[in-house]
UniProtKB/TrEMBL annotation:
Keywords: Endoplasmic reticulum, ER-Golgi transport, Golgi apparatus, Transport. Gene3D superfamilies: 2.30.42.40. It comes from Pelobates cultripes (Western spadefoot toad). Pfam families: Sybindin (PF04099). Part of the multisubunit transport protein particle (TRAPP) complex. This is Trafficking protein particle complex subunit. One of its GO terms (cellular component) is endoplasmic reticulum. GO terms for biological process: endoplasmic reticulum to Golgi vesicle-mediated transport. SMART domains: Sybindin. Belongs to the TRAPP small subunits family. TRAPPC4 subfamily.
């Protein structure tokens, strides 16, 4: 199992340190004819799937390239706006590569702050006296484990259901 990211968060929920290792993206490339059976919208300056799923393409996946030309935000590498390009029937058939976008700096700050809030609420709302808060959350795609040390540091790790993918956060009280 590999560690993809490390976060250090202070007691107030502020992100102190963050490190990203190379994360292999799961990408899907498909050839489409006009009209697209997916709904694409601009979100956080990225063109993302907002409705419709098929062949490994999921809601939230971003357009990474069109016909082998990389997409940077709303535009292709050669300066064409992605939404306008995809709305023109003369450009079809075309090949679009979709994948999960990397988190922006702002999204990383929000993630750290949100986890701090959930951790604090979990320890206060627990029916058990002296609860340490979140120990494990499980979803259909990952497990989040939180281990609190004697020095009040918490290590939080996200484990994807596939054993080769692990996401780690270190949470520190200062």
């Amino acid at each position: 199992m590999a560690i993809f990211s490390v976060y250090v968060v202070n007691k107030a929920g502020g992100l102190i340190y963050q490190l990203d290792n190379q994360i292999p993206r799961s990408e899907t490339e498909k050839t489409f004819s006009y009209p697209l059976d997916l709904v694409l919208k601009v979100h956080d300056d990225r063109v993302q799937v907002s409705f419709g799923q098929r062949d490994g393409i999921r809601v939230g996946h971003a357009v990474l390239s069109i016909n082998g030309i990389d997409v940077n935000g709303r535009n292709t590498a050669d300066g064409k706006e992605v939404i306008e390009f995809l709305n023109n029937p003369a450009n079809y058939p075309l090949s679009i590569r979709f994948g999960r976008p990397r988190l922006s700096s702002n999204e990383k700050l929000m993630l750290a702050s949100m986890f701090h809030s959930l951790f604090a609420i979990g320890s206060q709302l627990s029916p058990e006296p002296g609860s340490s808060g979140i120990e494990m959350l499980e979803t259909d795609t990952f497990k989040l484990h939180c281990f609190q040390t004697l020095t009040e540091c918490c290590t939080i790790s996200w484990h994807a259901l596939t054993p080769e993918k692990v996401f780690l956060i270190i949470y520190m009280h200062t």
